[in-house]
Amino acid sequence: MSTLIIDGKKISQDIKDELKKEVEELSQKNIIPGLAVILVGNDPASKVYVNNKKKACEYIGIKSFSYELPQETTEEELLNLIDVLNKTKEVNGILVQLPLPEHINESKILLSIDPIKDVDCFHPYNVGLISIGKMDGFLPCTPAGIIELIKRSNIEIEGKNCVVVGRSNIVGKPVSQLLLSHNGTVTTCHSRTKELAKICQEADLLVAAIGRPQFIKADMVKEGSILIDVGVNRLDNGKLCGDIDFEGCKDKALAITPVPGGVGPMTIAMLMKNCVKAALMQN
Ligand SMILES: Nc1nc(=O)c2c([nH]1)NC[C@@H]1CN(c3ccc(C(=O)N[C@@H](CCC(=O)O)C(=O)O)cc3)C=[N+]21
Ligand SMILES: [Mg+2]
């Protein structure tokens, strides 16, 4: 049987079209979702992501408020801006693009965002809700995007041996929790895991969120498995490359996500979904 290449671009477009419709209906009740996007510094990759988020807002009909602050911005200045946005009625969601410059304390910033406007789902209050299985509020964007890719490809999570490689607060940990809430049997691996290859070989569903180009090779994956690649590694030649050796692994897999065009676009679609949800919760 030929491998299903999961088309994240197409699926994210479907979601954006669903949201566009929903936002049109909301406008009849005079509700316009608003997202504030804050970027500190000049990282070119961050600028690209932030622009993609603004474009998605425009397409769907979400009003975006953009703050591009210089690298030297102090923690206090950033906290003051967030305080103002927390109190601004037109702003339903606040996103502070990560990573932040070294001199700014990231956890202090994430704590200062009003949890009801925390569309990234990074505030400890919202992280806590996810960890106790309350999934009716904001969902973390990349992990929720992964679940949506799987569901819309008609793949069942329940009962599957799910292996997540990576334990970051942004991807590894929350995706493990979402898979668990969908009744997967979840193993979370990391740099200190012993016999990583052996554990990966047992995975019916493997999520690679390591941050190393082509780390997962064909001999590490099970025949007939589902392979989800969260890697966004920029190579010296400018090309984007995943954490899975796509060419090597694809014939062994039942389904696999490409990079680009897999998980990445879903992250933005799920962010948009959280913005619409935020507007509903606040109106
Ligand atoms: N507060 C915050 N929230 C985030 O959600 C967040 C963040 N900070 N910092 C950086 C990471 C990374 N991230 C991506 C979003 C979209 C693509 C994406 O659309 N990727 C395209 C390709 C884009 C390209 O060519 O570079 C794709 O995979 O097809 C990738 C990565 C969100 N992040
Ligand atoms: Mg991400």
Automatic annotation (TrEMBL):
Q: How does it assemble?
A: Homodimer.
Q: In which pathway does it act?
A: One-carbon metabolism; tetrahydrofolate interconversion
Q: Which residues form the Tetrahydrofolate dehydrogenase/cyclohydrolase NAD(P)-binding domain?
A: 140-281
Question: Which Gene3D superfamilies is this protein grouped with?
Answer: Leucine Dehydrogenase, chain A, domain 1 (3.40.50.10860), NAD(P)-binding Rossmann-like Domain (3.40.50.720)
Keyword Hydrolase belongs to the record: yes
Supply the name of the protein: Bifunctional protein FolD
**Source species, please?**
Defluviitalea raffinosedens
Binding residues annotated for NADP(+), in chain numbering: 166-168, 232
- Indicate the segments forming the Tetrahydrofolate dehydrogenase/cyclohydrolase catalytic domain, all copies: 6-120
Per the record, its GO cellular-component terms are:
cytosol
Reaction(s) catalysed by this chain, per the record, are: (6R)-5,10-methenyltetrahydrofolate + H2O = (6R)-10-formyltetrahydrofolate + H(+); (6R)-5,10-methylene-5,6,7,8-tetrahydrofolate + NADP(+) = (6R)-5,10-methenyltetrahydrofolate + NADPH
